[in-house]
Amino acid sequence: MTALGILLVLALVLVVFGLLFRLQILTSIFSGSSAREFGTSNRVNAILMLVFLIVGGAAFAWSFGDNFNKMNPPIASVHGHATERMFWITMIVIGIVFVLTQVLLFVYSYKYQHKENQRAYFFPHNNKIEIIWTVIPAIVMAALVFAGWKEWSRITGPAPKDAVVLEVMGKQFNWLVRYPGRDMKLGVVNYRLIDATNEFGFDLTDKSGLDDFVPGEIHIPKGHPVLLKIRSRDVLHAVYMPHFRVQMYAVPGMPTKFWFTPTKTTDEMRAQLGNPQFNYELACNQICGRGHFAMKFTIVVDEPDDYVAWYSQQKSFSEQNPDVLASFKQKEEKLVVKKAAATVATPAVKASL
Amino acid sequence: MAANLPTQAQVQGGIGVTEPHTTHDEHALHDDHHHDQHWLFKYVFSTDHKVIAKQFLITGIFWAILGGTLSSLFRLQLGWPESTMEWLTPVLGKWVEAGKLNPEFYLALVTMHGTIMVFFVLTAGLSGTFSNFLIPLQIGARDMASGFMNMLSYWFFFVSGVIMFTSIFLETGPASAGWTIYPPLSALPQAIPGSGMGMTLWLVAMALFIVSQLLGGVNYITTVINLRTSGMSMSKLPLTIWAFFLTAVLGLLSFPVLFSAALLLIFDRSFGTSFFLSDIYIAGQALPNVGGSPILFQHLFWFLGHPEVYIVIMPAMGMVSEILATNARKPIFGYRAMIGSLLGISLLSFVVWAHHMFVTGMNPFLGSVFMFLTLIIAVPSAVKTFNWLATLWRGNIRFTSAMLFSIGFVSLFISGGLTGIILGNAALDIQMHNTYFVVAHFHLVMGSSAFFGLFAGVYHWFPKMFGRMMDEKLGYIHFWLTFLGVYLVFLPMHYVGIAGFPRRYYAWTGFDMFSQFADLNKFISIAAILAFFAQFVFVFNFFYSIFRGRRATENPWRSTTLEWTTPVLPGHGNWPGEIPAVYRWPYDYSKPGAEEDFIPQNVPYSKTQSSNLPYENENE
Hints:
The complex is a heterodimer. Chain A is α+β, with helices and mostly antiparallel strands. Chain A is 50% helix and 14% strand.
C-alpha cells in the first residue's frame, strides 16, 4: 500500500515537472528567446566552464591532500620503496600534464566563447608545432619506459640463491601455506591426492615431503630475500600483499613465483603506525567466487632470530597426520608387491611374444 | 541569416535526372518508388541504414538504463555494506538473503554491468548507431553496400540481447565470473552457480553478438571503400568516417579471436576438452583435465579485449573531432595528424594486449615488450588531445549540448588517459593491477568518455535523425549534472585504488588494510546513483523531442559535411535528386575571404574565388 502511495507521488511529481517544462518552452517561444541563436545560455555555459575549472580544481586538490596519508599503504619491502618512488614521480609528470591540458581546455572554452563580429582564426595545421608535441611526449614516454623496464627486470629477475622459500596455494576460499622443513626441499604434491585432510595433495612416498609443514600464518624474516612459490588448486586467485608491493596470479596447472625482501618486522610497523593491532595481510585479487572478498591470511615479519626459532618449532604435516602417512605406507607396500608381481609377469609376456 | 549554401547548391544541381552510374544507386531509386511499404518492413525489418541506426540507438538506451541500474545496486552494497537490503526483496527476490545481498549475485551484477556496458551499449549502441547513420550520409551514398546484411546485423544483435537478458532471470543467476570470464571460474559450475546455464547463455549471446559485429563491420568497410560520392577521396573524408572505418577494421580482425576463445571455452565446458583447464580439485573432486592453460584464454580474450577499448573510443573520437570543429567554427587542427594518429592507434592496439596480464605469471621478458609497446600508444593519443585543444584556440565557440559533451569528452579522456601511463608500466602495475585504480582509469578513459561521445553524437545528429531539435536547456542540465557526477565518482576512486582496494570485492570490511575509506565509498555511491538518475533527464528529452521537439532546419549547426545537404528528414535513398559531388575537405570553417563562416564540401572552388588559397585555384 505504501509502495503504491510512493509510486503515485512520484508519478505526480513527474507530471508537475513535465508541465513546468512545457510552460518554460511556451514562454520562451512567446518571449522570442528560442529564436535567438545565441542567448545568454552561451555566456552562462562559458562562465560555468571557468567555475568548474576553479572550484573543481580546488576541490580536487583539497580532497587529494586530505586523503593523501590514507591512500599510501606503508611500505615494507626493498623493491616497494623503488616502485613507490617511481609511482609518485610518474604521478608528478602526469599531474603537470593534467593541470596544463585541463586549464587550457577550460580557459580556451571560456575565452573563445562566441562573440558577435568575431570570426574564428583559420588555422588548419602547423607542422612545426605538431612535430614538437609528438616528439616531447615520445621522449618523456621513453624515459618512463626505460626506468620502468629496469625496475621490472630487477623485480622479476631470478631470486637470490639463499632466499627463504615457501609455497602459497589458493583455493576456494582461503590460502594454504607450506614450508620445506629442515631439508629445505618442498616435497612432491599431486592434485589427485587432495582430500579433506591432505589439502595440499602431499605425496608422502616422496621423502622430502615428510618434513614439510603447513602453518596457520606466514612467517618471513626481515632483511632476507623471500621466494614465494604460488599455486592454485581450483580457479584463478592472485596473491596480493599491498604492504610489500607484491602481486602474482595463482594459476591451476601453472606454478608462478615472486620474490621480495621485507624491510620491517610486524612489531616495527606496529610501532611506526602506533597501532598495536596492525598485521600484514594477504588478500586475493582475482575474482574467484562467493568468498573472494574474504580470502585473508596473516603475514608476520620476524627478526631473523625469531624466525629461525619459529621455524624449528613447527611440526611437520606428516607428524601431525599419522593416518595420512600410514595410508601412504600401505599404498607403498601394495605398490612394491604389485611391482614385484609385474617384474615376474613381464618376462612371461615377453616370452609369449 | 543568409540562405544556406547547401540549399542553393541543391537547387542548382537540379532534381530529376540521375546518372545511374552505380548499380547501387539504381537499386536505391527503385526502392524510392515504393513509399507505401508495409510498416513491418519500414520500421522493423528495415534495410534503410537510418532506421537501423535508430534501432541500434534505442536498443542501446534500453541496455544503458539496465547497465546503470545494475551498477546502482552494487554501489548500494559497497557504500553501505552493513545495512539491510530487505527493501530490495520485491525486485531481487531470493538474491536478498536475510537482509543481505547474496555475494554471488553481487558478482553477477558486476559481470553483467561490464558485459552490457562494454558490448551492448558502447560497441553496438555507439558504433552501431553512428556508423550506420553517418557513413552513407557523410560519404554521399544512398545506403550501405548491403542493406540486407545491415538488417541482419541488427537482428543478430537483437537476438543476442534477448538471450543475454533472459540469462539475468535464471534460477542459478547470470554469468558471474567477471566480464572477462576467465576460466576455470567461468568453466566450472561447481566454482560458482553463475557458470552453469548463465554462462552458457552468455557464450551463446556473445557468439551471436560477434556475428552481428562482423556483418556490420564488413558492411561499413565495403561502404567506405566503394560507395564514396564523386570527389570524396580518402583525404576529404570527415574524421568521423575515418574513425568508423578503422573501428570496423579493428572489429573485423579482433572479434573472431574472441569467437575462438568462446568456442574453446564451450568445448571445455560441455565436451570435456582441456584447453584452459588443468590440475583442478574442486567440490571434493579431482577433475580429469590436465595440460590446459587458463593464461591461454587470457591471451585470446585480450587480443580482442584491448582493440575492443579502441573500438569503443574511436567512434567517439571521430564524432568529437567533428563536433568541436563545427561549434568552434574552426577547422580541426592537424587533419592529417588526426588521421595518422587514428591509424597509429589502430595498428598499435593489436600489439598491447598483454599489458592486462603483467602479473599473471607470463614470462617477464614478454612483459617488458608489452610495456614498451603500450607506452608508445600514448603518443598518438597525446597528439589527438593537443590537436583538440588547438582546435578550440581562437575559435568562436557555440555551447550547444553536443559541444559541451565534446569538451567534457576531451577532459575525461585526458584524466583517464594519463593514469594509463602508470598502469602500462609493468613495475607499477604490480601494485595497481585489479585495484580500484584500474576501475577508475578505464571508467574515465573508455567508459565515461565513450558515453560522452555518444551523448554528443545524439544531441548533434538528432535533428537529422528525427527532424526535430532536442531541448537545449535540458541538454545543459544533463551535461553539467553528468560531468560533475562522473568526476565525483571516479576521482575519489583513484584514492581508493592507490590504497590498494581490490576490485570485485563484495565488501572490504574483512581486511584492516582496506577498512579505511568507508566514508569515501559512501560518497562515491551517492554520486554514482545521483549521476545515474541525471540520465533520465536525457531519456525524457530524447523521447519527448522525437514527438514534440522544435522542428529542425536542414542544416541547424551550419555544418560543412554532406549529411546536412539532405532534406530535413531524408527518405530512403537520402538525397531526392542527384548525390552531391564533393570538392573540398570537410573543415572549411571561418575561411578568410569567405562570405559565410562555413563552406560545405559540395561547393566547388570556382564559386568561392574570394576565399581560395593559392593551390586551390590551380585545382580548378
